[in-house]
Amino acid sequence: MHIDRLFAEHFRNLETLEWWPHRHFNLIAGNNGQGKTNLLEAIAVAASLRSFRTTKLSDCLTFGEKEATLGLRIERRGLREDLGVRIAAGQKKLFLDGKAAPSMAGYLGRLVVVLFAPTDLGLPQAEPAERRRWLDRLAFNHEPAHLPDLRRYEQALANRNALLRQQKTGHLDLGLLDAYDGVLAHSGIKLIERRQRILQRFTPILRDAFARIAAPGLQADALYLPRDEVADEAHLRQLLLTNRARDLARGHTTRGPHRDDVDLRIADRTAASHASQGQCRALVLAMKIAEIRSLEADFGEPPVLLMDDISSELDAARNRALMGYLDELGGQVFLTTTDAAHIRVAAPRQVFVMQAGHLAETGRFDRTISPESATGGS
């Protein structure tokens, strides 16, 4: 799968941008603050309807504008489709081939993207919420139904917490609290089961990728750590009811999959507390490679890879391993950097410079495919 064309209007500092990227490797260079990350964010939002920088899509609008538009022309398994998103305050409209999409479920999953950002390198030491977000992105990419379930859970959780805080004013609707418990239990058990299922499939691929990058004999693992062992929906609902008094006292929901974690391990020990910084970074690099490989196994072709200035954060050995993997990938890559000299790949590629939200092509390094097939035409 790959992107033939990107259109963005009033998105961040990309006031009006139309771009036909290279079919394989796109290197976007430029100083900080010029819009390189905005470009990757536009692709991610158009593909997954979620930003990796904010929870409110309205934050992505160009200052002073009321609406932003994103469009992607994609090719997957030989078929082309047009995806479109129109974003305004508090709402978004989805389009497929120029017509209103029938539903979010019908839109999601048509383009699969994997993001690799500098903040990912700190994942082993991060707060549990960051590892849950990584796992939920992994689950969503494999099974798009995960995102609607996650959104229903998050909305019910926010409403339940707001209701719990009303107890201090003496206004507590127990019937409404029961209703939110029902939504949390119904959606929550789906999140738990899908997270567990995805990690069981992912971990063997992670072990193989880590063995190729790190020292021989070291094994990596990603284990799901539920706050509570929950057997089914009824069990989760009972857990919420049992802890209701505590939740009322604290003003928030203390049990459920929003409190779960992922234990990232090296040599059967938690990486954050027992591994070196180099080993932790090798683990994260292996996780991204494993994510791509697992998705390629599911879909029969590699996902689109978004890399936000990663090369400057890796040591020479890890950078060589990453560049070697990118040469072998065969899929489409979008990589940003402040210094193009850091990026040494032999794959067919195109170099662009981003300045104040505008892209300029500086050179093509492509001996294997024609310019027409590289851009997908106009």
Structure, explained:
The protein is 41% helix and 24% strand. By secondary structure, the chain is an alpha/beta fold. The chain has a domain at 125-275: RecF/RecN/SMC, N-terminal domain (Glutathione S-transferase Yfyf (Class Pi), Chain A, domain 2, Up-down Bundle). The radius of gyration is 22 Å and the shape is globular. The two termini are 17 Å apart.
The CATH architecture classification of the domain at 125-275 is: Up-down Bundle
Q: Counting H and I runs of at least 4 residues, what is the number of helices? A: 11
Helix and strand element order? EEEHEEEEHEHHHEHHEEHHEHEEEH
Average pLDDT level: 88
Summarize the structure.
The chain is an alpha/beta fold. The protein is built from eleven helices and 15 strands.
Q: What characteristics describe this protein?
A:
about 375 residues, Glutathione S-transferase Yfyf (Class Pi), Chain A, domain 2, alpha/beta, 6-stranded antiparallel β-sheet, disordered C terminus
Note the topology.
Blueprint: E1 2-11, E2 14-19, E3 25-29, H1 36-48, E4 67-76, E5 79-88, E6 91-96, E7 99-100, H2 104-107, E8 113-116, H3 128-142, H4 146-165, H5 174-213, E9 220-225, H6 233-242, H7 244-250, E10 261-266, E11 269-270, H8 271-274, H9 277-299, E12 304-308, H10 316-329, E13 333-337, E14 349-355, E15 358-365, H11 371-375
Parallel strand pairs: 3-13, 3-14, 8-12, 12-13
Antiparallel strand pairs: 1-2, 1-4, 4-5, 5-6, 6-7, 9-10, 10-11, 14-15
